[in-house]
Amino acid sequence: MISFEKSKAVVQAQYLIQTVADNMMRPVSRYFDEEEGEIPWDYIEFMHGALRQMGSASLTPDHEKQKEAEKAKKPRQAYVVMAHQIEMLSWGDVGFYLCTPRGGLGSAAVESAGTPEQKDKFLSILNGEKPIFTSMAITEADAGSDNSAIRATAVLDEETNEWILNGEKIFVTAGRLSMENTEGYTVIWASLDLEAGRSGIRSFVVPAGTPGFKIAKKEEKLGIRVSDTVTFVLEDCRVPYDHILGNPKIEKSTEGFKGAMQTFNVTRPLVAATGLGVARAALEEVKKMLEEQGVVLRDGLPRNKMTSIERDVIDMERMVRSSWLLTLKAIWMSDNKISNAKESAMSKLHAGDVSSKVTQKAVELLGPMGYSREFLLEKWMRDAKITDIYEGTGQINRLVAARAILGYRGKDLR
Length: 414
What we know:
alpha+beta, Butyryl-Coa Dehydrogenase, subunit A, domain 1, Butyryl-CoA Dehydrogenase, subunit A, domain 2, Butyryl-CoA Dehydrogenase, subunit A, domain 3, 3 domains, 14 helices, 50% helix, globular
């Protein structure tokens, strides 16, 4: 049964994360927002050491501990713990959170679609002495929400038993950190057969330093500016045969593609947690700044007796709390290996709406102070918008949820 009480692991990490947010994120948030491209190495080095000490309460599920828990038939809670920690770090600064070592979308892809041997190989390196980052590259110039339009290719060289990857990937989050500055890796989505559509799509682990791989462009963005976003180009990029995640055999079904898509069922609720962390930061700052201006927010009154500001603040709090409960449910289902494509999509799209609406309302309520760069409210409004865009736009997640509710296939409801 799902529990909404904070676990011991969450409580143990809470003090550390709050300290990091107050002392290592908030004081330099504006600086790194303005100096896009500068890497926050002090934060990275500190978090790497702290997460190693925290062990199972880290931002990457401890693969060995998960296997032990499954063997002992104990309930898994790795992702629930992660959701709480991610929300708290994002309260500090969501861009900084995206620079946290020991994982990322790439490790989530391995966890979701990899074999036990691949999990042991590619997840164990995250626990090393140096900070390690991973990323996942899906989007192409002509393949955004429609993953079946992917044109990056993977061809098996039978003589060397290697996969040869060719293509270009755009808007890769943490691509520079994973492939340029540490011994990390990225997970590339490519097609084994372009005519096979989704049936031919698989994901491949490409380690940093692999010949034929390069970073071609670094994006300048509206928000989360401390987090890098880049373009990858692969030209006859070779990786070993066992770096393919999932079954290399092309079949008429789309099981291989579905295996790759399982990654999103885990990561979308975690993205929702990032947006809700930003929304909570804005909500708390609004209440604090209104109080400093002498505005009293009263509780327990009928709605028709509240002021307009009181109604707005209560609506903001209602949206944040309800979205958090939806997110926790989707995450709990991931931990317990319960099919959650619908819940995952719903949590992500709802949090995308909430984070944008709450941060925008925060700026509106504070007027010139909210719009001023003297405070972080306008930055949080810019940071929040990405929640509605990456990991599947709000429109796409509405389609995913609607198909699941109505029992339609993708071709029937587009």
